[in-house]
Design goal:
The protein is of the alpha/beta class and 177 residues long. It has one domain: Ribonuclease H-like superfamily/Ribonuclease H (Nucleotidyltransferase, domain 5, 2-Layer Sandwich), CATH 3.30.420. It contains 6 helices and 5 strands, in the order E-E-H-E-H-E-H-H-H-H-E. The protein has a 3-stranded mixed beta sheet. A two-stranded parallel sheet has the order 3-4. Helix 4 packs across helix 6. The model has no long low-confidence stretch (mean pLDDT 85).
Length: 177
């Protein structure tokens, strides 16, 4: 199991990527939840993913409930007004209100001139790379590229300067326990 995360802080675009890898889902979700709890709720913070509203965010929240954990406030949309929801989705941003089609992250990075994270493996291949190849480094590298691509797409859609590769802090990996 893995969750990858990249954050951008302030106008200086200080960035950091983390990849959470744990053999046991409950521990993975607990560590991710603990990391989210360390952020000051008074500060402006959003989570962003590509197709996150349809997949990533609900999937993580449901898995937390199934494993008996409390869903962090940032993931819990129950009863929130639209402007209180702190979940951003680059696919929704690209749609501009159009609900008829899906645009992949690979396509979006291509048309925006951003390096694709899918040049080696994609999300559908992670299980076989883990179980058949036992290649965690390859998965971590893919996760790092994927979250950076989402951050770059987010910035491009807001007409903000992209993050230069030398400004990205090394990935922190929590090895499979």
């Amino acid at each position: 199991m893995y969750i990858s995360w990249h954050y951008i802080r302030g106008k200086s675009k200080q960035t950091k990527a983390k990849v959470f890898l744990w053999r046991y889902e409950k521990e993975l979700l607990s560590q991710f939840s603990s990391m989210l709890a360390r952020f000051n709720p008074e500060r402006e913070m959003n989570l962003c993913a590509h197709n996150g509203r349809e997949f990533d965010f609900p999937y993580i929240a449901r898995r937390m409930i199934i494993s008996g954990q409390k869903v962090p406030s940032i993931l819990d949309n129950s009863g929130k007004k639209p402007w209180e929801v702190k979940l951003l989705d680059t696919m929704d941003m690209w749609k501009f209100g159009d609900y008829k089609h899906f645009t992949s992250l690979d396509l979006l990075t291509n048309i925006l001139g951003i390096p694709t994270p899918k040049d080696d493996i994609d999300g559908a291949m992670v299980a076989s790379v883990y179980w058949a190849d036992k290649d965690l480094k390859r998965i971590v590298f893919y996760c790092e590229k994927d979250v950076l691509a989402v951050a770059q797409v987010f910035l491009a859609l807001r007409a903000e300067p992209l993050i230069s590769p030398e400004d990205v802090e090394s990935v922190t990996v929590f090895p499979v326990a």
